[in-house]
Amino acid sequence: MLSNGLLGFLKFLSVVNLHFALPTPFMGTDVISGQGKAIILQTGDKTVFGSLSQEALTKREATSFDKGVKSISKLLMYFMLVMVPIVFLINGILKGNWTEALLFAVAVAVGLTPEMLPMIVNTNLAKGAIRMAKKKVIIKELSAIQNLGAMTVLCTDKTGTLTKDKVELIEHIDTTGKTCNKVLALAFQNSHFQTGWKNIMDHAIISHMQKIGDDKRYTQPEKIDEIPFDFARRRLSVILQKRDSVQMITKGAITEMFSICSTLDENGAIIELTDTIKAQLHEKCEQMNRQGMRVIAIATKSKANQETFSVQDEANMTLIGFLGFLDPAKPSAKPAIESLTNHGVDVKVLTGDNEIVAQTICKQVGIPADKFLLGSDIDFMYDDELTEATRTHHIFAKLTPTQKSRIIQLIREDGQTVGFMGDGINDAPALRKADVGISVDTAADITKDASSIILLEKSLTILNDAVIEGRNVFGNILKYMKMTASSNFGNVFSVLVASAFLPFLPMLSIHLLLQNLMYDLSQLTLPWDKMDESFLKKPRKWDPKNMLRFIVTIGPVSSIFDILTFAIMWFVFSANTVAEQALFQSGWFVVGLLTQTLVVHMIRTEKIPFIESRAAAPVMISTLIVMGIGIIIPFTSLGHSIGLVSLPLSYFPWLIAILVGYMITVQIVKTAYIKKFRDWI
Questions:
Q1: From the centroid of its chain, how far is CA 54?
Q2: What crossing angle do the helices spanning 509-522 and 581-603 adopt, rounded to 10°?
Q3: Measured by CB atoms within 10 angstroms of the end CB, which terminus of the chain is less buried, N or C?
């Protein structure tokens, strides 16, 4: 068996070549300028691009939703397997009619089964998907809605999500650090007159000049020649005829520009560019870098008239100033991140960009930026070390696709529900690893295929709205699960007590099935209900322990009032013989249905129902309809045909007293439960 040290070293070897062999052109790379030779090392699926495709096509691991549904289903199944045989044996032994006992046990099993769960879940998810679509969120996998609501960590890229994905010219300064229009004018002429491929900074310069309306003014000179950009020189020159003089204008990377400048323009005076001055200017450029800006320099010199120019002419130039570019943060990013944080979602940035720019943007949008981790550092870390780092770090920079996937996998293994937002082809493997893979409609097809959610607009504001909607959907599902499970537990406990002491069945099988059907029909409107703001404040996920605790706390409350109903029917209404069993069964049928339906309003909120929190209108209406039908059925021919009988008028004051007492008791138990466990739904 391999030791942790050897495993870590092997992982390092698997990626070390990728880091130290850069720049390496991968399959699918477009060459936009320059020239060079390439050696083909692998083809097809063995290339980096091919391996990304294979990872993107792998099946998504079981998500938080999948695991939760499975665990809750097991809990309900085990509960049914324990309770149903007990009901069967007690009724068979005490009543002596094993056939009737079997049928009753089967009816109890049906009553314990939340058979409407698939419909309730899918209706909730479908309605949530429709609401999200109106907010520019397209749901590919319905289970992603609940995963979104359960999300505790959001890993996102930087470009286009936190930033505008559009480079802007922020500063144009002279060598003393003052804003200088001459620097801007020279940079514009260099970008405008070049005939090669214009990069994002060229477009930013031209766009800036067009905004202030000076672009036409500086396009009058005649272009004589051009020395194109290449990656060795990292600069570009244009030569312009300006009246009686010829001027070379060069812009490029700081170090490369310093190497061709011998003088600088300082407030109009031309002075020597000494090593001391270079160091001072370097420090100024580094300050701009720390602000997240990318900095280039501008230099000029006058030339004698000549037909052609070459790289050798880029010498003894005069440094004029600097330009600073920034992909600025979106104005909407900071409030969206604040809202996500307030709703219990920890936002982390996973980017291929450098750490300085990432830190700057994160500071602007409110993400902790005091710590960062580089991809080169991650390669030397064991899984437990990296897991610990993911708990304290929010910026992971200069990452490869493999490193992104590894980070997400370890965060998931640490017990978190993870969302990942990315739109590049290299993000596809990480999207598959996450519980919630989020991309945008402009992403590559392979990226969208690997996603479970697609945003029509790359915005954290939209995602924040989707998170809240996901919690609302999941809350409505949880309501049904907890209400049904706790009520059914109480009913079964009541049945066990009644079976042990009554000379007849407390309710016929058909009564149980009808009661269960009517209750389930009343719950079909739950997808239209709303959750309290307090519920939406933190991530929610399936929790079998919480479910079991809820069932054994709330379930017995209904049993207490069922037993109280038994006593009233037995002693007050003398329904204590086999001949009067129909009256007994009718009385419990109505009480059981009404308490079970009414408890929806008690359980759906932490607050006082009907006063501090009201259910949505569809839920209120369905409750009233089902309760009304439940009261009427014993008086109808349908009720008589299934063994129910008309109830005396004196029954209804007792019914009201039981319902009021039940609601008050549930509210008291709920308050105590919340105080002790700091949780409810």
A1: 24
A2: 20
A3: N
pLDDT (0 to 100) of residue 170:
93
> H-helix or E-strand containing 276?
helix 275-290
Backbone angles phi, psi at 223, to 5 degrees: -80, 130
Per-residue HEC secondary structure of 653-671 comes to HHHHHHHHHHHHHHHHHHH
Q: Choose between 610 and 232: higher pLDDT.
A: 610
The radius of gyration of the chain from alpha carbons, rounded to an integer in Å, stands at: 36
> pLDDT value at position 63?
66
In the block, residue with structure tokens 């600088």: 264
Closest CA to 249 of 314, 180, 200: 314
Average pLDDT of the segment spanning 126-133: 90
Residue 636 in tokens = 């109808």
- Sequence ranges of the chain with CATH classification 1.20.1110.10: 73-147+465-677
User: Between 350 and 108, whose confidence is greater?
Assistant: 350
CA distance 663 to 660: 5
Q: Are 350 and 404 in contact (CB under 8 A)?
A: yes
Summarize pLDDT for 254-301 with one digit per residue, the tens: 999 999 999 999 999 999 999 999 999 999 998 998 888 889 999 999
Phi-psi region of 268 (alpha: psi -120 to 50; beta: other; left: phi over 0): left
Reduce the secondary structure of 304-358 to three states and give it as a string.
Answer: CCCCCCCHHHCCCEEEEEEEEEECCECCCHHHHHHHHHHCCCEEEEECCCCHHHH
Q: Report if pTM > 0.85.
A: no
At 475-519, the pLDDT tens digits run: 988 888 888 888 878 887 887 788 778 888 888 889 988 988 898
170: enclosing H helix or E strand: strand 168-174
Pairwise CA distance, residues 204 & 326, whole Å: 10
Q: Is 363 helix (H, G, I), strand (E, B) or coil?
A: helix
Task: Give 491 or 637, the one with higher predicted confidence.
Answer: 637
In the structure encoding, which two tokens stand for residue 579, read together? Answer: 């001949």
Check: CB of residue 435 under 8 Å from CB of residue 417: yes
Q: What angle do CA 198, 202, 208 make, to 5 degrees?
A: 140
Give the rounded percent of residues in the chain with a pLDDT score beyond 90.
Answer: 49
Distance CA 60, CA 495 (A): 44
222 to 302, 310, 312, 594: CA distances (angstroms): 15, 18, 22, 90
Can you name the residues that pair with 301 across neighbouring β-strands? 248
Q: What is the mean pLDDT of the chain?
A: 86
Integer Cα distance of 304 and 36 in angstroms: 34
Q: Which residues contact 591 (CB under 8 A, 6 or more apart)?
A: 561, 562, 565, 655, 658
Encoded amino acid at 325, one letter: F
**Choosing from 30, 45, 66, 157, which is the catalytic residue?**
157
pLDDT of residue 323: 97
**CATH 3.40.1110.10 residue ranges in the chain?**
168-326
d(CA 90, CA 454): 55
- Return the pLDDT at 23: 58
Residue 175 · residue 264 · CB < 8 Å:
yes
Q: H helices of 507-567, where?
A: 509-522, 533-536, 544-567
Q: Are 461 and 335 in contact (CB under 8 A)?
A: yes
CATH architecture of 73-147+465-677: Up-down Bundle (1.20)
Pick the CATH number of 168-326 from 3.40.50.300, 3.40.1110.10, 3.40.50.1820, 3.20.20.120: 3.40.1110.10
Q: Is 157 a residue of the active site? A: yes
Q: Which residues contact 607 (CB under 8 A, 6 or more apart)?
A: 532, 613
d(CA 626, CA 174): 79
